[in-house]
Write a structure and sequence with these properties.
The chain has 393 residues and is of the alpha/beta class. The protein is 36% helix and 14% strand. It is built from 10 helices and 12 strands. The strands form 3 sheets. It has a 7-stranded mixed β-sheet, with helices on both faces. Helix 4 links the parallel strand 2 (98-102) and strand 3 (123-127). The longest helix has 22 residues, at 371-392. The radius of gyration is 22 Å and the shape is globular.
Length: 393
């Protein structure tokens, strides 16, 4: 289609006020500006009393918003959620057989690490295609179990904790980076939970959070890992948990600018009503997209089962006959063309599906995204699809 033809296509009259729909780093909270960081302890040591207090405040406010049980430990660790997951895998895996649920890119990475890097004995990888969960009925809860609560790259989530027995022999290690602060997590059915600052509360990257149940702490203290650990992964010293990590003594130097931003997001979360309000905001975002999909003749959810559908990483696939008639490489180009049109118009930035996922769209629906912005975006999706259909069909 020529540039002139593009100009004659009627564009929607309303644009999202905030076009940031990236799945990480994610949109800042409504009303955010650089003024929110004016109190950051720049040029100060994170080990000074004031710096340590700010780090501990991130921990205490996170505990309160999430409703973390009193007997759990919560600490700030390096390298975002990836660092937190790798830390616990290297520290905990090996004591007993392990089952890994692999149903999207990141959980597949954890499976590869466990099998090919850690060489865990009797490891089982339970897989599913994008848009589906593995059969949870096949999990042996006497094993250690590694899972992602929400598939950031597939738009599929574990609906609830019912399949996980409260009385179990193994540990449940949960990557909750795109679930924490947007979904109810069954703390009594989990043992290790990780997330990052850059997802649901829209914080800056590079810092992870690690939550440990008493059972996980007991394993760390009583069963040393069957491998050498670099300093950045060490959670114990002389057979005891390094308690300072869970009071604001970080393993390496954190960014105090990012700390201030994390505190701003937590204060906003408290101000809007805490966890129930954050969950409701995310569910409202999913509802906007679901209403649009119900009337669409070209788009569908990648997650077919509504009960398993993510409210944060909202993944859409293109099902129109013109698109399905294309070869695989051309489908990728057509989907990217839709994304590029949206970006060129400034109505949706970073809205393409993850590189390993089926070609389509991925719209972040976490709590910092306004439902009105998604509502304004939906007609633009139809506009971009119509243009691309004319080009490729």
């Amino acid at each position: 289609m020529s540039a002139a033809s593009l100009d004659t296509m009627t564009k929607p009259g309303v644009r999202p006020a905030n076009p940031c729909f990236s799945s990480g780093p994610c949109a800042k909270r409504p009303g955010w500006s650089l003024d929110a960081l004016s109190g950051a302890l720049l040029g100060r040591s994170h080990r000074a009393p004031e710096g340590r207090a700010r780090l501990n405040e991130v921990i205490t406010r996170s505990r309160a918003v999430l409703g973390l049980p009193d007997d759990w430990k919560l600490g700030i660790v390096p390298a975002s959620d990836t660092g937190a997951v790798e830390m616990v895998l290297w520290s905990l895996v090996g004591e007993r057989p392990v089952d890994v649920l692999a149903f999207e890119s990141f959980s597949a990475t954890w499976a590869d690490d466990i099998v090919n890097q850690l060489h865990a004995p009797a490891a089982r990888v339970l897989t599913a295609d994008y848009g589906r969960l593995p059969d949870l009925g096949q999990v042996d809860w006497a094993h250690d179990v590694v899972l992602a609560w929400n598939g950031t790259t597939s738009g599929v989530r574990i609906p609830d904790g019912a399949p996980i027995p409260r009385d179990r022999d193994g540990l449940v290690i949960c990557d909750a980076t795109s679930a924490a602060f947007a979904m109810d997590l069954p703390w009594d059915r989990l043992d290790v939970v990780t997330w990052s600052w850059q997802k649901v509360l829209g914080g800056e990257a590079a810092h992870g959070m690690l939550a440990l149940s008493p059972r996980a702490v007991r394993r760390l203290e009583e069963t040393p890992p069957p491998r050498a650990l670099p300093k950045i992964f060490r959670l114990t010293a002389k057979g005891r948990l390094i308690e300072g990590i869970f009071k604001g003594d970080t393993i390496n130097t954190p960014s105090m600018l990012c700390v201030e931003d994390a505190l701003d997001g937590l204060r906003w979360a408290e101000a809007v009503g805490g966890l129930p309000a954050l969950i409701a905001r995310s569910q409202a975002n999913l509802a906007v997209v679901a209403d649009w999909v119900a009337g669409s003749d070209w788009a569908s959810f990648l997650a077919a089962d509504p009960a398993e559908r993510s409210s944060t990483a909202i993944c859409l696939t293109i099902v129109a006959p013109w698109f399905m008639a294309l070869d695989a490489a051309t489908r990728v180009r057509a989907a990217r063309r839709i994304v590029s049109l949206l970006e060129a118009e400034g109505v949706a930035l970073d809205s393409g599906s993850y590189r390993d996922a089926p070609p389509g769209l991925r719209l972040w629906g976490g709590a910092t995204v306004e439902a009105d912005d998604l509502r304004a975006l939906m007609p633009w999706l139809d506009w971009a699809e119509a243009l691309v259909r004319a080009e490729f069909a």
